[in-house]
Design goal:
The chain is about 30% helix and about 45% strand. The longest helix is centred in the first third of the chain and has 17 residues. By secondary structure, it is α+β, with helices and mostly antiparallel strands. A hairpin with a 5-residue loop joins strand 4 and strand 5. The chain is built from three helices and six strands, in the order ααββαββββ. It has one domain: Nuclear Transport Factor 2, Chain: A (Roll). A six-stranded mixed sheet has the order 2-1-6-5-4-3.
């Protein structure tokens, strides 16, 4: 894939994520995909294969619902793209927590094989 094709795929991924379109997201993933979430007990939870990754995506999209998401800079290194993002989480009491993170995406054969998420939270 060219660098532009990778960026275009990530744009499509981000749009599907914003809509909560699980079918659209999964169409972009390889059959043996991995999602390493930024939350959960490992730290984070690792989901393997399309069924588990779909579940993981659904869980984090639900968790993040109601907040404001923003995309940031992207860096390309071969078959990997590093992508900044930020998210304002709104608590039950109305307080806003700024969460910043970076995702590592790995591309194989024109699809995403890995979404590995890292986050920083100011408390």
């Amino acid at each position: 894939m060219t660098d532009q094709e990778k960026l275009n795929l990530l744009k499509t991924f981000g749009e599907a994520w914003g809509r909560g379109d699980l079918n659209g997201l999964m169409a972009l993933m390889t059959d043996d995909c991995v999602y390493a979430a930024s939350v959960g007990p490992e730290p984070g939870t690792t989901y393997r294969g399309k069924e588990e990754v779909r579940q993981g995506f659904a869980e984090i999209i639900e968790y993040e619902s109601g907040g404001e998401q923003r995309s940031g800079k992207k860096w390309i290194a071969g078959d990997y793209v590093f992508s900044e993002w930020s998210y304002d989480e709104i608590g039950e009491d109305g307080t806003v927590t700024d969460i910043r993170g970076i995702d590592i995406f790995h591309f194989i054969d024109g699809k995403l094989a890995l979404k590995d998420a890292y986050r920083k939270t100011k408390k």
